[in-house]
Amino acid sequence: MLKPYIRKVNYYETDQMKVVHHSNYARYIEEARLDLMEQSGIDYKAMEDEGIIIPVLEINTKFKYAVHFGDTIAIDIKVNKLTPVRFSLEYKIKDAETGEIRCEATSSHAFVNDKFMPFNIKKSFPEVYAQFEALLSKDE
């Protein structure tokens, strides 16, 4: 079972009201995605060395309640869609202490080579595809 990504909010990530600036949520979900891969044994550096790059195609966020300086957030993440060329993730950013959902987000990504051309990762790197497939949410 994967653990949520835990992170304390820094002062520099907030505005004058000590509320996290909306631009930081993209960073939070990026950190959570890399943590998910690390927890799952997917070595992103090794993937890049093999010529596999995973650009972000789209990010959507729905803000529910403000996150403030000093809060600790927990980010639950799951792979909700996977094809041999693309995948998407869902995130729930929660207050680590209360469990209150502060933000929900989604992101979509492509598998591209070092020339930024999409390719079929299942065909070219079946072991990498299998690692992502193991993360695919089965509860839908």
From TrEMBL:
One of its GO terms (molecular function) is fatty acyl-CoA hydrolase activity. Pfam families: 4HBT_2. It comes from the Bacteria. InterPro entries: 4-hydroxybenzoyl-CoA_TE, HotDog_dom_sf, YbgC/YbaW. Keywords: Hydrolase. Belongs to the 4-hydroxybenzoyl-CoA thioesterase family. This is Acyl-CoA thioester hydrolase. It comes from Eubacterium ruminantium.
